[in-house]
Write a structure and sequence with these properties.
Elements: H1 24-31, H2 35-42, H3 50-62, H4 69-76, E1 81-86, H5 99-114, E2 118-123, H6 124-129, E3 136-140, H7 147-153, E4 159-162, E5 172-176, H8 178-191, E6 196-200, H9 206-222, E7 225-230, H10 236-248, E8 255-258, H11 261-273, E9 283-288, H12 291-295, E10 301-304, H13 307-322, E11 330-332, E12 335-337
Parallel strand pairs: 1-2, 1-3, 3-4, 4-5, 5-11, 6-7, 6-8, 8-9, 9-10
Antiparallel strand pairs: 10-12
Length: 341
């Protein structure tokens, strides 16, 4: 192959898109330097003289040279990319535009970008079918009975999880203090004189189980009664159906703790359709402090978790792991946002 890049040979003509791609070896021979010098010049290495760097950059621009990023990452054994795997499968009922996981993703993206890392977003089924090349993984959601965690563990990659933090993790987990959130929800309802309480949520998920655990413990301490419990999908429709199931079963309650704000909105709608007023007949509190909670009628009282800080912590922990550090799991405090419901 002809390596005189200053000429206009057929192979190097800039007006022929079918020409063979210029390689780093070609640039090195044309510039009269080593391939290592070309590599350093292109990456702005301080050991390369300014005149040499400018000559290499000029030749690279003139002849359309492009770095082979995939090959470089393979040699360096680094992609500078973190994979974010969402345990849930987005659907019509539960879209990606909800605070979870959208607000978490915002914090993750901000933190990774500030450290010059890319982010690849995928769902668990897609990840299993076609895993991307990444340095580490952030798993959003532990899954039913932690099945999602088991799947990620098999990759052998560093990973951190958004989920339930109980102090006995075999892996790094970031999450809200869900047990405390359940206790706060109970205190809110008890403080309004409610004594016959119900819980709605899918406790096969560890975060939801922790919310129920804190809620039930506080009710028991106060001498009140947990009169009903129903599983629910993480949607308004799920909350509506679960509340209808409780009512159909004859449960009589004056307070409900719904494990998410979307579920709480469905519960309120069902109660109203059944002829109950909220909060006069039944008080309802949710979890998440989603933007829609304040806009709903009546506005939904909720337990707030700090999604943005959670996302940033997830990114910080996975970057530390990829660099060989040993970060710790972290549980974040929650607080109540009391509203009309």
């Amino acid at each position: 192959m002809h390596h005189d890049l200053t000429g206009t040979t057929p192979q190097m003509s800039r007006d022929k898109p079918e020409s063979p791609r210029v390689t780093m070896d070609d640039l090195a021979k044309a510039a009269g330097v080593s391939k290592m010098t070309v590599s350093r010049a292109l990456s702005g290495h301080p050991l390369v003289k300014t005149s040499t760097r400018e000559r290499v950059l000029h030749l690279a621009e003139q002849h359309g040279f492009r770095l082979n990023i995939a090959a470089r990452n393979l040699r360096q054994r680094s992609t500078r990319t973190i994979g974010v795997v969402i345990e849930m499968t987005p659907s019509h009922d539960r879209s990606m535009s909800e605070p979870y996981p959208l607000s978490l993703l915002g914090g993750i993206m901000q933190e990774l970008t500030s450290h010059a890392y890319n982010m690849v977003l995928t769902t668990l089924p897609l990840f299993v079918a076609s895993p991307p090349a990444v340095d580490g993984l952030i798993l959003l959601g532990q899954g039913v009975h932690e099945d999602a965690v088991d799947m990620v563990q098999r990759t052998g990659l560093p990973y951190v999880i958004w989920g339930s933090v109980d102090g006995n993790e075999d892996h790094i987990t970031i999450g809200s203090d869900n047990v405390a959130g359940g206790r706060i929800a109970a205190d809110h309802l008890l403080g309004q004189g409610r004594r016959a309480l119900a819980f709605i949520g899918d406790d096969k998920h560890l975060e939801i189980a922790d919310r129920l655990r804190g809620f039930a413990a506080r009710i028991d301490e106060a001498g009140a009664t947990l009169v009903g419990q129903a599983s629910s999908r993480f949607t308004r429709e799920g909350g509506y159906d679960a509340a209808r199931t409780l009512l159909a079963g004859g449960a009589v309650f004056d307070g409900v703790f719904a494990s998410s704000d979307a579920i709480a909105m469905g519960v309120i709608t069902c109660l109203r359709d059944a002829g109950h007023t909220v909060p006069d007949d039944v008080a309802v509190i949710g979890f998440d402090d989603a933007p829609g909670a304040a806009l709903f009628t009546p506005s939904v009282s909720s337990i707030r978790q700090d999604w943005d800080r959670g996302g940033k912590l997830l990114a910080q922990k996975i970057l530390a792991l990829t660099k060989g550090a040993k970060p710790l799991s972290e549980s974040m405090p929650v607080e109540i946002k009391a509203r009309e419901s």
